[in-house]
Hints:
This protein has helices spanning 55-65, 85-92, 97-103, and strands at 22-24, 29-31, 37-39, 42-49, 113-118, 124-130. It is α+β, with helices and mostly antiparallel strands and 131 residues long. The strands form two sheets. Strands 1-2-3 form a three-stranded antiparallel β-sheet, with no helix packed on it. Strands 4-6-5 form a three-stranded antiparallel β-sheet, with no helix packed on it. β2 and β3 form a beta hairpin. The radius of gyration is 18 Å and the shape is globular. The two termini are 16 Å apart. The mean pLDDT is 78.
Amino acid sequence: xxxxxxxxxxxxxxxxxxxxxxxxxxxxxxxxxxxxxxxxxxxxxxxxxxxxxxxxxxxxxxxxxxxxxxxxxxxxxxxxxxxxxxxxxxxxxxxxxxxxxxxxxxxxxxxxxxxxxxxxxxxxxxxxxxx
Length: 131
């Protein structure tokens, strides 16, 4: 998957459209009218403070260490015992455990991204949008 640079833009939408008809808060997903359940993506934002960032080095590190698109890590990640319920999820959903563990810590594809912005006070903010 090739990453591209995006232009900064702002768009105000005056129209409200409901994209789901049944929200299931407990499971963080929603159902479409067609009967398909959609799981919401994860978005996390962290205030890094007023730090200097070597963007070219960071970009190189991300591209070399964080698989994106359909790519996965070459070996399964080791997980802490607190995260061991993932094995039961793999069993219930009939997914290959090693394939799932190789997918942890990846960016995914589509509209997923890693981004650093700066606020008016000079603080850098890291935002990660993943699946």
